[in-house]
UniProtKB/TrEMBL annotation:
Region feature Disordered, mapped onto this chain: 94-136
Domain of life of the source: Archaea
InterPro entries: WH-like_DNA-bd_sf, WH_DNA-bd_sf
Entries under SUPFAM superfamilies matching the protein: Winged helix' DNA-binding domain
Start-end of Acidic residues biased regions: 110-119
Biased composition (Basic and acidic residues): 121-130
Phylogenetic lineage: Archaea, Methanobacteriati, Methanobacteriota, Stenosarchaea group, Halobacteria
Protein known as: DNA-binding transcriptional regulator, PadR family
MF terms in GO: DNA binding
Native source organism of the sequence: Halorubrum aquaticum
Alphabetical UniProt keywords: DNA-binding
Amino acid sequence: MTKWFHSGRRRDCCVLVYEAGELRAQSLKSRLESHYDERIDPQSFYATLSALVEAGYLTRRAEGLADVYTLTDAGEVALLDHYEWISERVAAGNERIDEGGNDADGIVGNDDDATDAGVDDANRITGVDDSRDDAE
């Protein structure tokens, strides 16, 4: 994952620009503030946009007094790759829920026995459900 995805605000800016096609900075800021339900510091917001422009994920052009932002091809590829990654995680979570769920810690068949812990970790990574009915 590229470094810009480490910031939720950067991801959210790209998502909103992708949705709209292009956005003026103030409109983008207003949409983010509505989504977050809080005011965003203007200096921090414009630093975020500058970082995205410098990294090549957004382009900026002047339109009158306003700056208008669009997603670059690289920004679109990065955003769609991240969307695919999130979708895969959510689908896997839905499958887990549909199959009856896991223990609260997310490890299938987990118990405190040290011998089984390695097997349980391997099963969790590979997706193997090795649940046991030890309670009977």
